[in-house]
Amino acid sequence: MKYTHKNGFPHLKPKKVLKNDHFILQEDTTLLPFLIDTFEEKSRSKIKSILYHGQVRINGETVTQFDAPIKKGDFVTILRKKVEKDFSPTMMERVFEDDYIIVVNKREGLLSIANNKTQEKTAYYVLNKYFQEENPDTHIFIVHRLDRETSGLMIFAKSIEVQHLLQKNWLQWVKERKYIALLEGNLEREEGVISTYLAENKNLKMYVPRREEGERAITEYRVKQQYDGYSLVEFSLRTGKKNQIRAHCEYLSHPIVGDKKYGSKINPIGRVALHAYKLTFLHPKTGELINLETPMPKSFLSLIHFIENRNKKSKIE
């Protein structure tokens, strides 16, 4: 295949293509054979990644199709640096990312990982698919889980090594995990610690047993605001058991709004009002303290505003 570098010197197989290198084609071909010839040291998956990231221009136009035709005299530009794409996996937004981990804000209604009934509508599946579209050799590894009904911060690893590091010493790496929730009713105490055993019944529901069976679960709570018939409460986990906060709220006789499974009688915002809003951890590779926080979901704020406006009208009347 013949093509000429813009500086006028003919090249057949350049060993290295610099950023913004330009080529003028001297014969008709298609894009993939040209890129294979240009990047002889790279695999096909790497070359397709270059296309996916918008690093190829033909006559000034970005081209991502591997079979795009190139004609004699066409002007081809190859960028070494990736063109950043918007992060848009369904039901998630990126909060933090580097070469080792990615932290996302998961929406409610999305499983963390597949179960017997759902294989594809999971945070793991959607995120892994997104990264493999960018680079087929990339894999994402789940580190911990959030309930389907819970929104909030989740960490994913970009290698098995980092996954094992975080999972093996989870309590050592993670310094703080905080949740915010709207509960039914008003709590008697402004703050406290719930320490019980949690067991699972035949319907896969967690509950506080009368005897010491199951596993010890410890949850700290602090009331941030009391409303007429509702409480905005912050939770911190000392342990991380399945449905721990939800089961402990039912145990207090103040279930989370919308959590029918754990005793809620109302669902004014169409979801379980529980959000993992804060995560502080030591980076498993750099040792840096990472402190991440997401805003309260808009549905929570809408309900709070509704309650406050209702109370104001009641006082006026």
Task: Report the portion of residues in β strands.
Answer: 25-35%
**Major beta-sheet overview:** 11 strands, mixed
- Cα end-to-end separation: 85 Å
Please name the CATH topology of the largest domain.
Pseudouridine synthase
CATH homology superfamily of the largest domain: Pseudouridine synthase
- What would you call the shape? elongated
Q: Look at the helices and sheets and give the structural class.
A: alpha+beta
Which CATH architecture of the largest domain would you pick?
A: 2-Layer Sandwich
Number of helices: 7
Number of strands: 19
Give the averaged pLDDT, no decimals: 85
Number of domains: 3
State the helical fraction.
10-25%
Question: Any low-confidence stretches, pLDDT <50, length ≥5?
Answer: 1-19
Written description of the protein model:
With 317 residues, this protein is of the alpha+beta class. The chain folds into three domains: 3-78, RNA-binding S4 domain (Structural Genomics Hypothetical 15.5 Kd Protein In mrcA-pckA Intergenic Region, Chain A), CATH 3.10.290; 86-168, Pseudouridine synthase, CATH 3.30.2350; 173-317, 2-Layer Sandwich (Pseudouridine synthase). It has seven helices and 19 strands. The strands form three sheets. Strands 9, 10, 11, 12, 13, 14, 15, 16, 17, 18 and 19 form an eleven-stranded mixed β-sheet that branches. Mean pLDDT is 85; it is low at 1-19.
